[in-house]
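Hey, I was hoping to borrow your eyes for a little while. I've dropped the whole record in just underneath, so have a look:

——
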Amino acid sequence: MKISNLSHRLTGTAIALLLLSAPALAADVTVTAFGGSWEQAFRKCYAEPHTARTGQSVEVIIGGPPQWISQISANPNNPPIDVLVNLMDTAALASKDGLVELLDESKIPSLSKVSAQFIEPLDNYGTVINYGAAGLAYNRDTVSELPKTWKEFFQGAIDGDYVAALPGINLSSTTPTALLWNIIDLYGADIDDEDALFAELKKLKDSGNVVFYNDINQFLTLIQSGEADIGPYWDGRAWLAHDSTIPNLDFYYPEEGGVISPSVIQKVKNGSENGWDFIETLLTADNQKCFAHAIGYAVVNSDVEYEGKLAERVPDIATIRWPDFKNVAARMPQWVDRWNREIGQ
């Protein structure tokens, strides 16, 4: 029996439509990452080496922890994410809600190269993978005498020695720890003593020598424009700006020490077992070293040896101060409310 050309065409069209409507094959492991240069380094130093090592395809989802945790919570028995990059406060939330697994060293041999100080704060529901520390970034053309301590820095702003750029309440990556907890810790206030915290904040605001930045890059704009001279900022970002567009920007840690800001990795409960393989890839020394030099932050594998400028710049972990992340996160809603009423920027 002869089949007409029309039948051939109809059959071909039906097959094409079926192929177009079929879902794309899922990646072997789905992981999350922060955007920008962080994502680029993550793909180059972790995702690509993982595929080369295991043959597993990697899907990298860009966004932020609240979004990712919501996605996992919506379908905990079949989560859309296998490995969760997180921050300390939201990592605690993920473990409290039963969304992530305890680390299993038998599945992550390189975990033995990670100090317990990077795992214990997470109660073994993840590990720090890299970290920066907040110190003071300043315009060396306008600040002639550097404050030696954080307390001297805040007092110098009150006294009008310079204009200080402080993180505003909307900068959630910086303000809770580098400013609010920092002040509480420096002045010996109880974390529940809201009045003591806001008394210091009001002194700074009322001095007229403070400007607030609510975008991490706005700090650099304030320094470049001359609207501010000095302020709390992250080491890696400060050095990146110094090496590229703002050579007169310098950075140091005051005597009390920098304030740590870690990135965390967690294995999602009920996610693919390939997630363990990915965490192993991420924690190996070569890949950690690649990431450190690409992004300018310290990493946690003890076998990593930094080179060049980075070797001089990474903070001494023994001198970094660790905020009380869980209690800060619990108090942020009331601090935000009071800030909006009394500080307003």
